[in-house]
Amino acid sequence: MSTLPLKAVSRVWGRFNELTIPYYLRVPGFKLYSAIFGVNLSEVAEEDLHVYPNLASFFYRTLKPGVRPLDPSLNAVLSPADGKVIQFGTIENGEVEQVKGVTYSLDALLGSVKPTKRAPSIEGFSSPDPKETRTKVGEEDVMQTEEEFAKINGITYTLPNLFSNPWPKDNKPADMPADQSTSPAASSEAEVRADLALGDASRPWWSPASTKIPTTLYYCVVYLAPGDYHRFHSPVSWVVESRRHFAGELYSVSPYLQRTMPGLFTLNERVVLLGRWRWGFFSYTPVGATNVGSIKINFDRELRTNSLTTDTAADRAAEQAVARGEPYSGFAEATYDGASRLLGGHALKRGEEMGGFQLGSTIVLVFEAPTGSGEGAAQAGFKWNVAQGAKVKVGEALGYVEEVQ
Question: Does the keyword Translocase apply (predicted)?
Fold first, then answer.
């Protein structure tokens, strides 16, 4: 497989998907595709299939409001996409089980070093956005909504200096990642409450660090088939602090390959989103695959992967390595500091659309949650609500954090 030009084929396929289909062929063509791959056309927001000019737009279709209700429990971790649960469980000694008896390391999936942070303007405070142009009055209003978001959802935040000067360009370290943040939705910033702080210690940077109750790292892998709804959503209310783009391979991520190719997800191109939720560490990784035209992140200015017309820092670094005759296994990093000076990242509420695939692929969730082994007046534990091979839809509960008083 490594000798096949899968990236080139996938880019050409992505371009082919964007070719305009003759008007009179659209309805029969999309109905045939739906019959072959099991697309439920009754859920599609736009009932007139003529409005989709090409395959890419049909793959990236939206759904009717209300067809993906969210689980009512605020303690639920929701399915990020429509698809099949390939694997789930706990992470032991930094190893994630791909299939029974085959594992890969969390360092290989997420990166072995802790995400780079921008230096604060004053100790304990977040750095101001260099492009910030809001007035102080408007800024105070935004800070209040962001603080409310943090309070509701149990997420820690810092109180920045509203009257400090913008971060000086010349003072910014050259090796800091670029800020690719966009403005978050106001409603998303209205939902989070402070209660967690990621600890850094001598342990791996992703290691659980809660001191209030015992926690464990959990993971879940959801595979999207060609007929599934291809947009993906936020499983919980959380803050995305940084992004890593690994310009890897584009092997198929079919269930068969997942069973037969060890470390598949650590070899493929992927976008690792890193942040925190009320219980600790949270990561969300859309994984590329053969013929995935692109991975889109709605709140990232730069990122659109595997495209003939766009380029990313990771793509450029990979091309330079190939030109030198060297393998490239690194990543390009960006932060979302500018989205919120209070939260230090981009706030997402549960169920909010985050981006999508142009064709099917896989999402890997890795998150910290209570182990359920704590003693005392209050204890909490995470309980799975799915089975291996189960079909899930956006908004359904993968599991719950059970709190017992």
Answer: no
Helices H / strands E in the chain, number of each: 8, 18
206: alpha, beta or left? (left if phi > 0; alpha if psi -120 to 50): alpha
Q: Could you identify the residue written with the tokens 């990642």?
A: 177
* Residue type (1 letter), 19: L
State CA 28 to chain mean position distance. Answer: 34
Per-residue DSSP letter, 212: S
- The closest of 365, 387, 347 to 150, measured between CA atoms, is 347
| In the block, residue with structure tokens 């706030």 | 347
Other beta carbons within 10 angstroms of residue 74's beta carbon come to: 16
d(CA 103, CA 89): 12
pTM above 0.85, yes or no: no
Within 10 A of 213 (CB to CB), how many other CB atoms are there?
A: 19
Length of the chain: 405
The single-letter DSSP state of residue 45 is: S
Active site residues: 82, 233, 361
The one-letter amino acid code at 349 reads K
Residues in contact with 160: Cβ distance below 8 Å, sequence separation at least 6, in sequence order: 121, 125, 126, 128, 143, 341, 342
Q: Which of 23, 24, 63, 10 minimizes the C-alpha distance to 251? A: 10
Q: Give the pLDDT confidence of 285-338 residue by residue, as tens digits.
A: 998 765 555 788 998 877 765 443 345 665 566 556 556 665 555 677 888 888
